[in-house]
Amino acid sequence: FSICSRTVEPLEYYRRFLKENCRPDGRELGEFRTTTVNIGKCLCSITTADGSALVKLGNTTVICGVKAELAAPAVDSANKGYIVPNVELPSLCAERFRSGPPGEEAQAASQFIADVIENSQMIVKEDLCIANGKLAWVLYCDIICLDYDGNLLDASVFALLAALKNVQLPLVTMNEETGLSEVNLKQKNPLIIRKHPVATSFAIFDDTLLIVDPTAEEEDLATGTVTIVTDEEGRLCSVHKPGGSPLTGAKLQDCITRAITRHKEVKKLIDKVIKSITPK
């Protein structure tokens, strides 16, 4: 396989590999890139966050910082707090992105994350309420891509989950006499994470062939992509398919089965890292 053919005819170049059930980077079609996660104090650069994590999926690198603030609940949701996710794709992460207001891809990723939070019920908004109609927590979840090489959604969901697992909220009470909130910074409790969603993305080649964890180049050459989100019970939380090639029921079921297996790997990785940083 010549380097020239990859430049001139990248799709044909890929097809020659795919016929042999492998990819130019040496992976098999169902093989994920090396995945690593650092949580909390491992990230000395985000000391102001209440929870943080950095995830690397091959060359794709995503950092998530969670900032907790106090606010009054909405009138129509007096017993609920807020979760505000935001995905940023700065120009430094890849040549395809430009500085300025969020582009279409960043907005779509932010909406995807918001949907995952809602559909999976990873955090129940009622758990963020401190005093009904008076006080609640707002969780600002900023997800920033530092290096983009495809599969942003998997890395973002992973980083969000790991950062939220790292959040410690101080005890807050309402003084009934003064009506003011009192914050006890000496007594902190972990955030209640009710479900652990994990995203698994696939690229579709020539309408039929599925490969997992696509790179940026593979995403560009693919005829479609699909992202499956499952929780620890194997429950399907979300199917994200932005157009492209249709999937048969059998192919979709195959994706779900592989996503459930991937969930176990990611959950095991998070648990191992959290155990390593938990004081004994």
UniProtKB/TrEMBL annotation:
<dbReference type="GO" id="GO:0071035">
    <property type="term" value="P:nuclear polyadenylation-dependent rRNA catabolic process"/>
</dbReference>
<dbReference type="GO" id="GO:0016075">
    <property type="term" value="P:rRNA catabolic process"/>
</dbReference>
<dbReference type="GO" id="GO:0005730">
    <property type="term" value="C:nucleolus"/>
</dbReference>
<dbReference type="InterPro" id="IPR050590">
    <property type="entry name" value="Exosome_comp_Rrp42_subfam"/>
</dbReference>
<dbReference type="InterPro" id="IPR036345">
    <property type="entry name" value="ExoRNase_PH_dom2_sf"/>
</dbReference>
<dbReference type="InterPro" id="IPR020568">
    <property type="entry name" value="Ribosomal_Su5_D2-typ_SF"/>
</dbReference>
<keyword id="KW-0694">RNA-binding</keyword>
<protein>
    <recommendedName>
        <fullName>Exosome complex component RRP43</fullName>
    </recommendedName>
</protein>
<keyword id="KW-0007">Acetylation</keyword>
<dbReference type="InterPro" id="IPR033196">
    <property type="entry name" value="Rrp43"/>
</dbReference>
<feature type="domain" description="Exoribonuclease phosphorolytic">
    <location>
        <begin position="31"/>
        <end position="170"/>
    </location>
</feature>
<feature type="domain" description="Exoribonuclease phosphorolytic">
    <location>
        <begin position="197"/>
        <end position="260"/>
    </location>
</feature>
<dbReference type="GO" id="GO:0035925">
    <property type="term" value="F:mRNA 3'-UTR AU-rich region binding"/>
</dbReference>
<dbReference type="GO" id="GO:0071038">
    <property type="term" value="P:TRAMP-dependent tRNA surveillance pathway"/>
</dbReference>
<keyword id="KW-0698">rRNA processing</keyword>
<dbReference type="GO" id="GO:0034475">
    <property type="term" value="P:U4 snRNA 3'-end processing"/>
</dbReference>
<dbReference type="Pfam" id="PF03725">
    <property type="entry name" value="RNase_PH_C"/>
</dbReference>
<keyword id="KW-0963">Cytoplasm</keyword>
<dbReference type="InterPro" id="IPR027408">
    <property type="entry name" value="PNPase/RNase_PH_dom_sf"/>
</dbReference>
<dbReference type="GO" id="GO:0071028">
    <property type="term" value="P:nuclear mRNA surveillance"/>
</dbReference>
<dbReference type="GO" id="GO:0034473">
    <property type="term" value="P:U1 snRNA 3'-end processing"/>
</dbReference>
<keyword id="KW-0271">Exosome</keyword>
<dbReference type="GO" id="GO:0000177">
    <property type="term" value="C:cytoplasmic exosome (RNase complex)"/>
</dbReference>
<dbReference type="GO" id="GO:0000467">
    <property type="term" value="P:exonucleolytic trimming to generate mature 3'-end of 5.8S rRNA from tricistronic rRNA transcript (SSU-rRNA, 5.8S rRNA, LSU-rRNA)"/>
</dbReference>
<comment type="similarity">
    <text>Belongs to the RNase PH family.</text>
</comment>
<dbReference type="GO" id="GO:0034476">
    <property type="term" value="P:U5 snRNA 3'-end processing"/>
</dbReference>
<dbReference type="InterPro" id="IPR015847">
    <property type="entry name" value="ExoRNase_PH_dom2"/>
</dbReference>
<dbReference type="InterPro" id="IPR001247">
    <property type="entry name" value="ExoRNase_PH_dom1"/>
</dbReference>
<dbReference type="Pfam" id="PF01138">
    <property type="entry name" value="RNase_PH"/>
</dbReference>
<dbReference type="GO" id="GO:0000176">
    <property type="term" value="C:nuclear exosome (RNase complex)"/>
</dbReference>
<keyword id="KW-0539">Nucleus</keyword>
